[in-house]
Amino acid sequence: MRDLRHSATWSGIFAILLWSSLALMAVFTASLPPFEVLALSFAIGGLASLLASPGSLRARLDRLRQPWPAFALVLAALFGYHALYFIAFRHAPAIEVNLINYLWPLLIVVFAAFLPGVRVKPGQLIGTVFGLCGVIIMLVQGRALAIDPAHLPGYAAAFAAALIWSGYSVLNRRHASVPSAAIAGPCLVVALLAGIVHLAFEQSVVPDRAQAFVLVLMGLGPVGVAFRLWDRGTKHGDLALLGTLSYAAPLLSSLLLLGSGRVAAHWSQAVALGLLLLGAWISVRASRADVAG
Asked: What angle do CA 89, 92, 95 make, to 5 degrees?
């Protein structure tokens, strides 16, 4: 049981690392409509996950079968989160949207405390708060936030997205018997729904070669493999520790953008890195003490 928890936690960590590359990929696809990107990347990710499963085509399709509550939970999370995230950016400034959205790792830790058989140590909650503080400092960069009531729809959409993703990550534990390979089904349905929204509200843009290559990478990595790994991590891993370490995603994203020359260096990045490392150390130490106990 401990070996499963350990390996599943690492699966979740690898998902976080893959998600950290998403911002850099988004830069290359910024000229494409968001729901077109969503449709194409999820179609690639869903098909890749389906084809990666061993056995005949019939055996692969059989693995997509799952109880409808499990299917509905994943579908609502994947499509609902991304749809609300895009809506939030249309109705509120990016900094405030990101700050509200990145409440989801903290909410995972808080919600996990209510799961039967899950113990959230005080150190894990403290470590997560350090991670949140690091992200806030990095995103704000010393600027004053202007909370404008006119942007309330955007703020509400960002908070709803955070609630959906954190709620899914915790409630997914109830469907631990469903194999992670089954996530290919909801991914393909998300691609279909996103395609419908795209055709209804957006103007199609044909990707160039570089964008097509990035879309394939996005579908295979941050969308395809990452969601499958996160599914396994949330079903069998240490939820509180994964919540803390999730704050590595925005920080690593910024460092990748910095290394590529897309953003300028700022003192807040160093402070955020220090707070994240401190928070991770506190959370990992609390997690190890829990396992040892």
From this structure: 80
Backbone phi and psi for residue 208, each to the nearest 5 degrees, phi listed first? -80, -175
Q: Which of 22, 37, 5, 2 minimizes the C-alpha distance to 198?
A: 37
CA-atom Rg of the chain in angstroms: 19
pLDDT digits (tens, 9 = 90+) for 68-114: 999 999 999 999 999 999 899 888 887 788 888 989 999 999 998 88
Sign (positive or negative) of CA dihedral 251, 257, 262, 267: positive
- Tens-digit pLDDT profile for residues 228-276: 999 999 999 999 899 999 998 888 888 888 887 766 778 888 888 898 8
Is the Cα dihedral 34, 39, 41, 46 positive or negative?
positive
One-letter amino acid for residue 199 of the chain: L
Beta carbons of 9 and 230 less than 8 angstroms apart: no
Give this prediction's pTM.
0.89
Which residues are CB-neighbours of 54 under 8 A, at least 6 positions away? Answer: none
Token duo for residue 184: 């290919």
Distances 95 to 9, 88, 154, 229 between C-alpha atoms, Å = 30, 11, 12, 28
**Residue 120: both structure tokens together:** 């959230």
- What is the spatial distance between Cα 246 and Cα 107, in angstroms, rounded to a whole number? 11
